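Quick start: what a row looks like.
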Amino acid sequence: MCVLSFVFVCVCNNISYFSSIQQTNRYSMAYQLKFRNKQLKLIAVDLDGTLLRDDKTISEVDMATLEMLGREGIIRVAATGRSMHKVEEVLMAGTPIDYVVFSSGAGIFNWNEKKLLHSEQFAPHVAANVCRHLYEENFNFFVYQPIPHNNLFLYHKGAGNCVEFSNYLERHKGDFSVLPDCSHVCKSGQFMAIVPNNDSLFEQLKNDIHADCDGVRVIRATSPVNDKFTWIEIFPEAVSKGHGLKWLCDKLELRYSETVGIGNDFNDLDMFEFVGHPFLLKNGVDALKLKFQSVDFTNNENGFSAVVQSL
């Protein structure tokens, strides 16, 4: 039985202990042959709801799969909406990955060398215009500082009581201050507004933002802590997980067709459209499953390893 088949057996039987796998030359050759046939050089995986279980840990099965990919020369990328500050809360030192595409592609980080490779931020006039629009429309929104300090932000409380907005502030105590007015915003790497989870509402608000603000990209993300709310993330127009992976592939001189992307939510859409082989987990958004392939395992059932096996 090849190593990947063994991974799949572990997944199907929900085996929690996986660190005793021994890598023989025969297993290694079979594993390399599978990936050579698929011409795969890079696997990018979302964190929340994908590689991370609901308790924000990585299963031993999925950790072992990451380690095997590394031994076989496959580049492992965490592609996440989290800032690096938040990434380091869930990925411990020594986690077997190579790069992090963070803040939905606004930054790229060499995990092993602990080095920032690339980052994006708004031009001052664009940041001021976005802030003005959100302020005048009375959104509940946040204004984040540019990378590498984008864990820090200003906030504006808009119309209506929003429990997710209040809870977000509660979770980030010490990282924010009140936005006095838009004249104080000249540098930013990201804005985020919180609205109820409603498809038509999001599309309307996205179109309004695009109509009033040039040079921006609006990305939808379901709140990872309360799926009744949508996070409207606004970045410079060159920012997305797909753009981040493209930058990394160009730097590493990899063919785009040699890449895999694994995720579960709307903010993975640009990644899915870029990579050669996109996959959703079972807990992924149903609307995306109509367009992209999925596996029958969730983030709590070693879904990452199930995708690797399906390749």
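That is the whole record. The domain at 124-236 is CATH 3.30.1240.10 (Hypothetical Protein, Haloacid Dehalogenase-like Hydrolase; Chain: A; domain 2). The chain is about 35% helix and 20% strand.
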